[in-house]
Prior knowledge:
Elements: H1 7-20, E1 25-26, E2 31-34, E3 55-60, E4 62-64, E5 67-68, E6 71-76, H2 83-101, H3 109-127, H4 134-137, E7 175-178, E8 181-184, E9 197-200, E10 203-206, E11 213-214, H5 224-234
Antiparallel strand pairs: 1-4, 2-3, 3-6, 4-5, 7-10, 8-9, 10-11
Amino acid sequence: xxxxxxxxxxxxxxxxxxxxxxxxxxxxxxxxxxxxxxxxxxxxxxxxxxxxxxxxxxxxxxxxxxxxxxxxxxxxxxxxxxxxxxxxxxxxxxxxxxxxxxxxxxxxxxxxxxxxxxxxxxxxxxxxxxxxxxxxxxxxxxxxxxxxxxxxxxxxxxxxxxxxxxxxxxxxxxxxxxxxxxxxxxxxxxxxxxxxxxxxxxxxxxxxxxxxxxxxxxxxxxxxxxxxxxxxxxx
Length: 235
């Protein structure tokens, strides 16, 4: 990715690459959101260009052998996170890793979501966003910046199956997404340096007796230094 690249081109490149490697379909229309567009959860216009200083949020998946994937990554268009971008990214990453670690038999999606709320509320408090300490933010103000669930079941459909209760304990063999995010609008309640930053990190996780297995694999890094290194290789 370089400054000036079109969101539509990134979406088309993803579709071409996955189908060239055997995918029959996309799992859903990809979200490619540069800059403040990342603060729109299901942004789908994909009609703008990533500018220098923008983050690019891409939520995309394909269908292979009947099964769906659903992955999100957020990266800097110019190859390096600014300090405010990195601060928000690392807050989301902490929640992401904590939730993955908790993907074990017996835990429910509801419990995973509560872990994400507590971690992201702590991150918001550290960023000076939300108007209080982590405990106060977790009681409700976090919803302005994190308006979705951390997870859904994944399988033959992208949401497979939505009729399974979020309080149901997970069993070995279950596959689910982990996708915390923070979306900071251009709003006086947000410190100026953070306005317009949207970050989501999503992986597909297999629950097993041996612990969670990240099906998204090491080839799609999430650690910020590794993201920057990958971007440098592609420059």
